[in-house]
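Memo to structure team: turn this sequence into structure tokens by end of day. - J.P.
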Amino acid sequence: MENLLNLGSVMLIILVVVGLMMLLYFVPVRLWITAIFSGVRLKLFRDLVGMRLRRVPPDRIVKPLITAHKAGIPAETPKLEAHYLAGGNVQQVVNALISADKADIDLPFERATAIDLAGRDVFEAVQVSVNPKVIETPPISAIAKDGIQLRAVARVTVRANIERLVGGAGEETIIARVGEGIVSTIGSSETHADVLENPDIISKTVLAKGLDSGTAFEILSIDIADVDVGENIGAKLQTDQAEADLQVARAKAEERRAAAVAREQEMVAKVQEQRARVVEAEARVPTAIADAFRNGQLGVMDYYNIRNIQADTQMRNTIGGGSEERSSADL
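Reply from structure team:
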């Protein structure tokens, strides 16, 4: 019997402890007491227990609520809960509202929550609106009209525009637009020396283009931090063009040479063909003479006259060839 009583007592103690834990979980008494002593009036069961039932962690709402109350910022519990359930950061919104109020910036609660739900850090946006930030561009290469390449680095001072934070472009757009303006300004300069002598012409020209249109920032100034001289792109392009022209000229000369060789080979073939015909014709002469003898068209004396003419022609050719060889030797 005593064992049963002891077991029952242990079970009762366990049940009491579990019950207290469940009660303290659903009824955050400590948080309620903290809120009361901070001046925030909350109903224990209607507000705090209701948050538990609505799956809203009470500390995520009560602590920002206390912070807003201490800073004199009006905040309503249902609106804070609705912003949390929408996926927003309640503490960041409250911090942004406090910073905006201290800096005398008009930032309604609805706009702050919209900025936060848009994925932007609303607290940082308020800080940038009060204390402008500097965005440094990467080295931007551009070529002046004289063909010299310049590399420029710019520092852009921007201030957040609260009214355009929702739907406005970010820092990447600012950097891209400034880079485009730098390339355009350097490209329109007659010589690179003009840019090196007056680098402020870049900042003045770029700043006058209104590059912050449609962005979440207001450009306050654009300062050229560094300008370096790069390669002589114009000379390099001319060299490449000259090399290309030389290759084209060589190709055309080779084409003409090949055509000349082909014509020469064609002429040689024609000469050889003609020589072959002459040799063939000469080979037919003895046959023709024999036929003439048989037909009585050629006599013996005629034949001897032909032979004398051939011998005389051969002698003349030999003498003529010998004199040409001696003339060549004398030379």
